[in-house]
């Protein structure tokens, strides 16, 4: 099994994916253990002084004015975890919780939080044991961190609350820790606060969203090319010199991908008998690289934000190298929330243009000779009519999900925390949007491959033939009379989501950008 070693300088997106989705083990480097111990010494020294220090010897949030004596400080740290573990609603996905835990450990390992090395080691042990705390959908405002989600994780470290074991069964966390030979932690000064004061949930979901969107944008370039081919469109608008004069990198990459898929096609530019050769295709076909390219450039900006966050230590207060413990506002999720919302907008537009191409394939007045709804016997057969309805419903929901969460602040904590990011909410709706986008692209793939196959006597591009063959081998049937359509659409959805479309095409085209 792969192992990810955490030092003091952050981590990488791939490390997050490996831990969250593939169960990679986590180890603390000697450098991290040393930094943890040094920061803890600073906290212990401050805790021994009579002067109040936020998070060490005071209450929290609007209650920070109360000085807490030594005899109550362990209870203070336990209480913040228990009281903040106030999430409600459905459980969030296991991969999200693992990303959340790993990223909090990443910040702890930086040596800026004052958490003891043994607490950090317990966090790694819980991840490595496959124990996943139960975290709920609602409870984070994305400021002062993802408080409730992280609190549920910290609660499990204390041996309280519920968690999912490596077998997928939910049990009391104390039982799971005991079975794994892990002793529950006894929190000391500042540690409770440090375990729940970060933007780790929204960041983890951003990193996984970027990985999923990377596959989806490449897949969308393929389905756009297949639609262009099925519609007998012209590939000349994809030539690099046209995109060089509007130098957006994403646009050039999408156009190059489509051109690579269409190389060797006998359908592009073909004119039907009695039909004049087309100089221009409809916007949904002709402007595919511009729309998909803008989304790619949005992803590039979001990736930059994610990489900066991965190098950050998000906590309040923080332990600085000069030995001071300072309050700050770095827990505010605005940088992450904005790009999460931005990605939802880009994804909605990509879904919208894909649906327009699908609709064009099904309309006999705009499909340049294809049968109505790609049906075998139109009238007796309805073909893909309702597949487009499903796709349109998904697009409409994506438009609703594109409404920014980060524009909606709401005050909390007796107006002490009077502006929040709503980054967790932005991340949750983006995950839903990505699932919808995958289904939308799957419907376009289903329609476009059928359209290509219905062009009898014309030879598709080699990459198109490879995509069609792989899709049919996956159990998704081609043209023919009406049949129960939902299983075919579900199989096409899985085909795209699992990267099988890319896997079929790239041996022909080379790696797509």
Automatic annotation (TrEMBL):
The modification 2,3-didehydroalanine (Ser) is found at residue 144. Its main location: cytoplasm. The keyword Manganese does not apply. InterPro entries: Aromatic_Lyase, Fumarase/histidase_N, HutH, L-Aspartase-like, Phe/His_NH3-lyase_AS. Pathway: Amino-acid degradation; L-histidine degradation into L-glutamate; N-formimidoyl-L-glutamate from L-histidine: step 1/3. SUPFAM superfamilies: L-aspartase-like. Keywords: Cytoplasm, Histidine metabolism, Lyase. One of its GO terms (molecular function) is histidine ammonia-lyase activity. It is found in: Cytoplasm. The keyword Cytoplasm applies. Contains an active site 4-methylidene-imidazol-5-one (MIO), which is formed autocatalytically by cyclization and dehydration of residues Cys-Ser-Gly. It comes from the Bacteria. Its EC number is 4.3.1.3. It catalyses: L-histidine = trans-urocanate + NH4(+). GO terms for cellular component: cytoplasm. CDD domains: PAL-HAL (cd00332). GO terms for biological process: cinnamic acid biosynthetic process; L-histidine catabolic process to glutamate and formamide; L-histidine catabolic process to glutamate and formate; protein homotetramerization. Belongs to the PAL/histidase family. HAMAP family: His_ammonia_lyase. This is Histidine ammonia-lyase. It comes from Streptomyces venezuelae (strain ATCC 10712 / CBS 650.69 / DSM 40230 / JCM 4526 / NBRC 13096 / PD 04745). The gene is hutH.
């Amino acid at each position: 099994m792969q192992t990810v070693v955490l030092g003091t300088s952050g981590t990488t997106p791939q490390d997050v994916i490996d831990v969250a989705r593939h169960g990679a083990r986590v180890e603390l480097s000697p450098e991290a253990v040393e930094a943890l111990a040094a920061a803890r010494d600073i906290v212990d020294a401050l805790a021994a002084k009579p002067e109040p220090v936020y998070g060490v010897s005071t209450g929290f949030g609007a209650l920070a004015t109360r000085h807490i004596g030594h005899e109550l400080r362990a209870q203070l740290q336990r209480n913040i975890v228990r009281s903040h573990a106030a999430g409600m609603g459905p459980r969030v996905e296991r991969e999200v919780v693992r990303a959340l835990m790993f990223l909090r450990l990443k910040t702890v390992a930086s040596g800026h939080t004052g958490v003891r090395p043994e607490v950090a080691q317990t966090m790694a042990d819980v991840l490595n044991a496959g124990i996943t705390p139960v975290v709920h959908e609602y409870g984070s405002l994305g400021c002062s961190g993802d408080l409730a989600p992280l609190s549920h994780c910290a609660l499990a470290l204390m041996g309280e609350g519920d968690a999912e074991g490596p077998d997928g069964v939910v049990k009391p966390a104390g039982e799971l820790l005991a079975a794994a030979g892990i002793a529950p932690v006894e929190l000391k000064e500042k540690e409770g606060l440090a375990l729940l004061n970060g933007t780790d949930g929204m960041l983890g979901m951003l990193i996984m969203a970027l990985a999923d969107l990377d596959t989806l944008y490449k897949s969308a370039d393929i389905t756009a090319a297949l639609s262009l081919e099925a519609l007998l469109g012209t590939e000349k608008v994809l030539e690099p010199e046209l995109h060089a004069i509007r130098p957006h990198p994403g646009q050039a990459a999408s156009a190059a991908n489509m051109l690579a898929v269409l190389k060797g096609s006998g359908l592009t530019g073909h004119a039907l008998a009695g039909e004049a050769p087309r100089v221009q295709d409809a916007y949904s076909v002709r402007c595919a690289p511009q729309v998909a390219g803008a989304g790619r450039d949005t992803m590039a900006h979001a990736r930059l934000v994610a990489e900066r966050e991965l190098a950050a230590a998000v906590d309040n207060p923080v332990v600085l190298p000069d030995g001071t413990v300072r309050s700050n506002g770095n827990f505010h999720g605005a940088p992450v929330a904005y790009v999460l919302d931005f990605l939802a907008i880009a994804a909605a537009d990509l879904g919208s243009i894909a649906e327009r191409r699908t609709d064009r394939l099904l309309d006999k007045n705009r499909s340049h000779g294809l049968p109505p709804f790609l049906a075998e016997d139109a009238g007796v057969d309805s073909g893909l009519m309702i597949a487009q309805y499903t796709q349109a419903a998904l697009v409409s929901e994506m438009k609703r999900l594109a409404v920014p969460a980060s524009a909606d602040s709401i005050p909390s904590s007796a107006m002490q925390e009077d502006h929040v990011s709503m980054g967790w909410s932005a991340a949750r709706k983006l995950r839903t949007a990505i699932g919808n986008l995958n289904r939308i692209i799957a419907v376009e793939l289903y329609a476009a491959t059928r359209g290509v196959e219905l062009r009898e006597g014309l030879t598709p591009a080699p990459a198109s033939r490879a995509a069609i063959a792989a899709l049919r081998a996956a159990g998704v049937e081609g043209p023919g009379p009406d049949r129960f359509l939902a299983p075919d659409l579900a199989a096409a959805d899985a085909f795209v989501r699992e990267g099988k479309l890319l896997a079929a095409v790239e041996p022909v085209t080379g790696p797509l950008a």
